[in-house]
Write a structure and sequence with these properties.
Layout lengths: L1 H26 L3 H33 L5 H4 L1 H33 L4 H35 L18 E3 L5 E3 L1
Antiparallel strand pairs: 1-2
Helix pairs in contact: 1-2, 1-5, 2-4, 2-5, 4-5
């Protein structure tokens, strides 16, 4: 449970940070300032992503009894898809951090170059947001496919609750 809570909290911080970046791109006119915001966010996102990864591995280890269940269960397949989506988001974040942000720093003062780089930064941040939202959707599917809950999903155990009621001297009824 602790790993799940930490995983969810770190994921929420990461997703919330991406949403804040999208809002910043809509409200801030200064491309240099936006690059600084992206750089600062990527520094904190690195820690958050590390926490998400470690707790995710711990939970997968607990939930999947064997490695072959990664490809033989709905949960495992959804987990593979989620990890693939998250890896793409991490790659996009790295592209922003190590390619686009330095490009903005090197082109400060050139309005036409600033607007092009700003569009790239905004597009990549929006793509990160969309992919993280899809990963959240995949997580919702994973919850319904968990091998640990497959027996619980069948419903509660049946309990015999029959009752015999006397209806007089010679008659009874089973309820």
């Amino acid at each position: 449970i602790a790993s799940d809570v930490v995983h969810l909290a770190a994921g929420a911080i990461w997703l919330g940070g991406i949403v804040a970046l999208v809002v910043a791109f809509r409200t801030s006119p200064d491309t240099g300032r936006l690059a600084t915001i992206v750089r600062r966010f990527s520094d904190s996102a690195l820690i958050t992503v590390g926490v998400v990864a470690v707790t995710g591995v711990i939970m997968a280890w607990i939930i999947l009894p064997s490695v072959d269940e990664l490809t033989s269960t709905g949960y495992g397949l959804a987990l593979i898809l989620k990890v693939a989506l998250v890896l793409v988001v991490i790659a996009l974040g790295a592209f922003n951090r190590y390619r686009l942000v330095p490009a903005v720093d090197g082109r400060a003062g050139s309005p036409e170059r600033d607007s092009g780089t700003r569009r790239w930064l905004r597009t990549v941040v929006l793509a990160e947001l969309v992919l993280l939202l899809v990963a959240v959707g995949v997580t919702a599917v994973m919850v319904t496919r968990s091998p640990l809950t497959s027996t619980a999903a069948a419903g509660p155990a049946q309990v015999d609750q029959s009752l015999t009621v006397a209806l007089g001297d010679a008659a009874t009824a089973d309820v």
